[in-house]
């Protein structure tokens, strides 16, 4: 039979429809042989294989050795340092350090000048037919045409300043004019201006760039004495960066030949001084991962007293990452390939109660490996220390922003520059300040650090990870908690609130049927029930519901004991503060880690804590600890109960608020260490909002980003149509936002079930205001064509143009005497850390109290006014391709949280051409535009066209850009051909010239 046309030659082809004969599993392009079909399929989907088939081995030519060197800069360096190259250079008597040259064709490979790669000859046909090659070929043609168009030609010169540079907004609104002169210095020249067009005004949907062109007078003839004068006007009412192309079609009237001259028009609307103040401090240079200095032995330092403030009777496991797994994670390859390998080799074949622990232990190790890598970014190579009393103080850039996050008790390794390699001193953090930490070292450490420099390495605090491993090692494997089924649910109809006769602590719950049902269901749960979920969309009062449920459980059962957890201290403090209104300090205990400072604790909770004489938070004696009816902790700190010696089953109920933000191992610290067969578990949260923050893409792909709450909500036992009131209740009354702000996320994420119930005195505060293009619609999309920048070694993006627009809105809000807006009423959300830093600096003189932060920092919060800066404005040709990068703006949950924080006014500042590439954002922009909330440059697509939810709009943009390039190149070609296009009958009477 014939050979398989696939890249395989023989074996079992992964294409089920293949009818060809095979004998072995081989990938011809890569010259790899595979034992199993599964391994081959993984390889065929890998980036390495695709690059190989496309011919993407980037190469340079060595004229000394007469060979092409593939593999990029690293391979070139290895080649010129190699023995053979050095010998050839010596024989030829030339320096060995030569610059790489353009590759040349060889016997085995052909050089593609469009793609700048060497392609194996047998794959040349495949390569030139690939979409990437065709795209680069098109761009190259376009680039040549553009360069040709930009040149003065046929004795015609186009003079004039067409880069308007910075234009103040008031000047831009009035209009700024530049004069362009089309001249010739040749007396006998006879040329005329045939046409002048702007590129933005061509195509099916013209876009307004702000530029316009007008001819002075009526004459279009260009002579040595009289040039043609054109007025180029820039008029724009909005901040941002604007660009266009002026195309001048001219004709040599004597020769009857036409030609084209093009010029790029540019302008930046904004204040030059403000732009200069925010511009990158240094050009962006990607940071390369250097090989970390070896650590052979560490001299221990004295730990702070906080580490011994709680006398634990159970020690945490070390839980070091297995060597084989660490080796696998250190391997090269794409995320998908590494994930596939790790899943096959290390992960259990299926997830069930018996494999739950081992499954998540591996994910924890994978995440820890990435966290260790990420924390290396903050290492300081040439630091200085100052000594005061027993402490050595180290300045840590970014400490205030928790980049890196450092707590009392953390370990930082220090080595003096020039000291014996491999020997480091461990410094425990004893003092934590705004921008520096106070360390203590062993007595043999440098006594006087003045004038000395040190290598500093930050180490990951493994205690949270070890607590999760401890939980995963637990013998608690009850299916009704880990993998609840419909059969675990109580039979019959759910208990209705009217039958319980609850005496509510919060009387407002009585008027909210879903909240009342949730409380009633939780109170009436039989012992040992499956977990109960309170599904709380934004602003629906899920924490209020949980607090009421805890109070009612205590009221209904005098023997009830509750462990209440939340992923963060701030969320746990909210629960404890609300419970403190009805519980005494003998009934409620708020446990804090000993490393926490008193000033970080709300005053209202001080009496609900236990503090040692040295000022550290701790735990009271066991008999007192067991007497509390409610203990409130963070999810990670919940392990204190087991480690302090409390017995399993002591708590009748375990509540986890904001459970969607915690990883499954975090949530299970409390459950697996303290629950028994009778313990009831209650979770509250919203799986449609942000989940836990996971750093490792491999851990994300393998499931660590899916919270326990989300996993349950995706199971049959939590289908609200059949299990409402038994295992789940969805809260639907929104007490936060104006109905227009709520409408879009309500339809997209919550099936349109949310009901606007907020106070109109709050939600209507900005209606009819100067900020709204549509006076009854409190959402604004302010279109800004800006530029995203990076600086120094930081990969984080910022956008100066958007910063200035955000600042102008806040200035107007602060200066508005009709509608008083305090700093605390405004929140600014930006998805990039660099943008947050620049915004804070820019707002310092305007409104220093305005909170600026990431989406994560705003989850669970609300403000009267929310301004979102989306940052990205990447619209440039990169490697002959138009790539638009949304970063993590294009994340449905991130979007949902960002747009549901506002109570009365939501302002989005961003580049619509970039945002519209994402179907969700495109739908939202259409919603705003059709309701009159748009300001700035007009929309560039038809907002009435239904959005394809699975549409790849980036491909549409690329295709349109390619059509534009083809069209421009075609026009240039048509005009050039027109130079030769004479009357077809003109030569009929001319004799033929004899040609020997």
UniProtKB/TrEMBL annotation:
GO terms for molecular function: 5'-3' RNA helicase activity; ATP binding; hydrolase activity; RNA binding; zinc ion binding. It catalyses: ATP + H2O = ADP + phosphate + H(+). It is found in: Cytoplasm, Cytoplasmic ribonucleoprotein granule. It holds the Pfam family AAA_11. Residues 27-49 form the C2H2-type domain. It comes from the Eukaryota. One of its GO terms (cellular component) is cytoplasmic ribonucleoprotein granule. Keywords: ATP-binding, Cytoplasm, Helicase, Hydrolase, Nucleotide-binding, RNA-binding, RNA-mediated gene silencing. Its EC number is 3.6.4.13. Its main location: cytoplasm. Coiled coil: none annotated. Belongs to the DNA2/NAM7 helicase family. SDE3 subfamily. This is RNA helicase. It comes from Agrocybe pediades.
């Amino acid at each position: 039979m014939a050979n398989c046309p696939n890249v395989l030659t023989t074996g079992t082809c992964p294409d089920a429809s293949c009818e060809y004969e095979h004998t072995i599993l081989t990938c011809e392009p890569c010259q790899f042989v595979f034992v199993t079909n599964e391994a081959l399929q993984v390889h065929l989907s890998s980036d390495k294989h695709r690059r190989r088939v496309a011919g993407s081995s980037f190469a340079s030519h060595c004229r000394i050795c007469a060979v092409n060197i593939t593999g990029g800069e690293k391979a070139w360096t290895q080649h010129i340092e190699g023995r053979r190259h050095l010998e050839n250079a010596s024989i030829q008597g030339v320096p060995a350090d030569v610059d790489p040259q353009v590759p040349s064709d060889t016997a085995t490979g052909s050089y593609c000048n469009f793609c700048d790669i060497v392609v194996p000859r047998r794959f040349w046909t495949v390569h030139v037919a690939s979409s990437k090659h065709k795209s680069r070929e098109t761009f190259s043609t376009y680039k040549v045409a553009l360069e040709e168009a930009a040149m003065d030609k046929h004795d015609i010169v186009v003079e004039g300043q067409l880069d308007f540079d910075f234009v103040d907004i008031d000047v831009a609104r009035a209009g700024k004019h530049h004069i362009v002169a089309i001249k010739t210095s040749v007396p006998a020249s006879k040329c005329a201006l045939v046409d002048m067009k702007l590129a933005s005004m061509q195509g099916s949907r013209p876009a307004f760039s702000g530029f316009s062109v007008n001819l002075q007078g009526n004459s279009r003839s260009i002579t040595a004495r009289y040039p043609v004068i054109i007025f180029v006007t820039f008029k724009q009412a909005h901040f941002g960066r604007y660009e266009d192309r002026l195309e001048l079609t001219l004709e040599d009237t004597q020769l009857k030949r036409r030609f084209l001259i093009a010029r790029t028009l540019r302008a930046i609307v904004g204040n030059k001084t403000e732009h200069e103040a925010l511009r990158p401090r240094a050009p962006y240079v990607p940071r390369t991962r250097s090989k970390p200095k070896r650590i052979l032995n560490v001299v221990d330092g004295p730990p702070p007293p906080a580490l011994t403030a709680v006398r634990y009777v159970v020690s945490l496991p070390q839980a070091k990452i297995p060597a084989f797994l660490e080796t696998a994670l250190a391997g090269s390859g794409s995320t998908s390939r590494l994930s596939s390998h790790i899943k096959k080799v290390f992960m259990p074949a299926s997830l069930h109660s018996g494999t739950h622990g081992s499954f998540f232990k591996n994910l924890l190790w994978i995440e820890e490996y990435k966290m260790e890598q990420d924390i290396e970014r903050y290492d300081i190579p040439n630091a200085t220390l100052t000594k005061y009393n027993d402490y050595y103080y180290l300045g840590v850039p970014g400490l205030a922003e928790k980049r890196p996050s450092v707590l009392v008790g953390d370990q930082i390794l220090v080595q003096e520059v020039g000291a014996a390699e491999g020997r480091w001193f461990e410094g425990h953090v004893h003092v934590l300040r705004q921008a520096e930490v106070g360390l203590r070292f062993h007595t043999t450490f440098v006594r006087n650090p003045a004038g000395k420099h040190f290598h500093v390495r930050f180490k990951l605090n493994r205690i949270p990870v070890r607590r999760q491993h401890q939980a995963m090692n637990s013998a608690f494997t009850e299916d009704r908690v880990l993998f609840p089924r419909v059969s675990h649910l109580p039979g019959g109809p759910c208990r209705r609130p009217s039958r319980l006769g609850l005496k509510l602590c919060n009387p407002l719950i009585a008027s909210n049927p879903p909240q009342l049902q949730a409380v009633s269901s939780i109170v009436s749960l039989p012992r040992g029930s499956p977990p109960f979920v309170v599904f709380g969309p934004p602003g629906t009062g899920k924490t209020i519901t949980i607090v009421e449920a805890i109070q009612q459980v205590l009221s209904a059962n005098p023997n009830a004991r509750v462990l209440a957890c939340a992923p963060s201290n701030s969320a746990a403090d909210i629960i404890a503060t609300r419970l403190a209104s009805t519980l005494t300090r003998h009934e409620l205990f708020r446990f804090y880690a000993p490393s926490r400072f008193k000033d970080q604790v709300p005053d209202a909770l001080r009496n609900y804590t236990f503090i040692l004489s040295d000022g550290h938070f701790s735990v009271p004696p066991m008999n007192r600890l067991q007497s509390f009816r409610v203990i409130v902790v963070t999810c990670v700190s919940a392990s204190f109960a087991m480690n302090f010696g409390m017995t399993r089953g002591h708590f009748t109920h375990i509540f986890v608020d904001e459970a969607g933000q915690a990883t499954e191992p975090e949530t299970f610290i409390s459950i697996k260490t303290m629950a028994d067969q009778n313990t009831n578990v209650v979770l509250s949260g919203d799986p449609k909002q942000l989940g836990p923050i996971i750093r490792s893409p491999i851990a994300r792909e393998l499931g660590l980003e899916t919270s326990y709450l989300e996993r349950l909500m995706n199971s049959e036992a939590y289908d609200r149509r059949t299990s409402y009131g038994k295992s789940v209740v969805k809260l639907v009354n929104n007490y936060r936002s104006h109905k227009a702000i709520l409408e879009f996320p309500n339809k997209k994420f919550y099936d349109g079930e949310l009901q606007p119930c907020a106070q109109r005195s709050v939600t209507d505060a900005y209606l009819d205001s100067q900020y709204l293009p549509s006076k009854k619609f409190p959402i604004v999309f302010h279109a800004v064509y800006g530029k995203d920048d990076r600086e120094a070694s930081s990969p984080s993006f910022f956008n100066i143009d958007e910063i200035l627009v955000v600042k102008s809105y806040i200035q107007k809000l602060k200066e508005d005497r009709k509608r008083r807006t305090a700093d605390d009423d405004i929140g600014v959300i930006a998805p990039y850390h660099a943008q947050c830093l620049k915004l804070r600096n820019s707002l310092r003189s305007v409104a220093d109290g305005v909170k600026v932060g990431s989406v994560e920092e705003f989850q669970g919060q609300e403000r009267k006014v929310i301004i979102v800066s989306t940052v990205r404005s990447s619209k440039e040709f990169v490697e002959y391709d138009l790539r638009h990068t949304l970063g993590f703006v294009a994340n449905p949950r991130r979007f949902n949280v960002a747009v549901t924080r506002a109570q009365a006014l939501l302002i989005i500042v961003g580049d619509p051409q970039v945002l519209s590439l994402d179907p969700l954002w495109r739908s939202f922009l259409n919603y705003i535009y059709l309701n009159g909330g748009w300001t700035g440059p007009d929309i560039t697509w038809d907002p009435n066209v239904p959005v394809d939810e699975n549409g790849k709009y980036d491909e549409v943009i690329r295709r349109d850009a390619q059509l534009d390039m083809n069209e421009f190149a075609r026009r240039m070609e048509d005009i050039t051909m027109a130079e030769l296009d004479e009357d077809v009958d003109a030569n009929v009477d001319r004799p033929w010239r004899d040609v020997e």
